[in-house]
User: What shape does this take?
Amino acid sequence: DQSPLYSQIRLSEPWDSPHNAQFHETWPYPFRCPAQETKQKQVAYLAVIDTHTLWPGTACRSLRECVDGTSRTILVIEVAASGTHWMQPRDLELAEVSGVINGDMAKSISSQHVGGAHVVLADGAVRFLDTSTTESTIQSLRLIDDGQPNNF
Assistant: This one.
């Protein structure tokens, strides 16, 4: 739905180049959570990057590499205070991410929702993880190949 905007952005230039800066005040709906209460143009959804996630760096993995199963592996997390402008190419390193729901709002699965936050699984399902979700379950969901069962 954002093709007109996307076609104007110069992907060959940095996100904050003079040309691309003219789009900074635009804030496409898919990048924000409806419950987000901020005037800053921060994304609400980030990938978790590590050699054992679906995002090993600048590329992505095939879903076939998701040994633990696509319904048991996180693709994207909700982050309430990401501090990341919607155009900025930045995600979170696995080592940075807190294992607590709604912990450090800039570095955890977090939201403005009462009681938890959303994640997108590799199979495309959106799940609400409540604050009682254990750290070991969160860790297991973030990894593609730990072989640990997770019941959530």
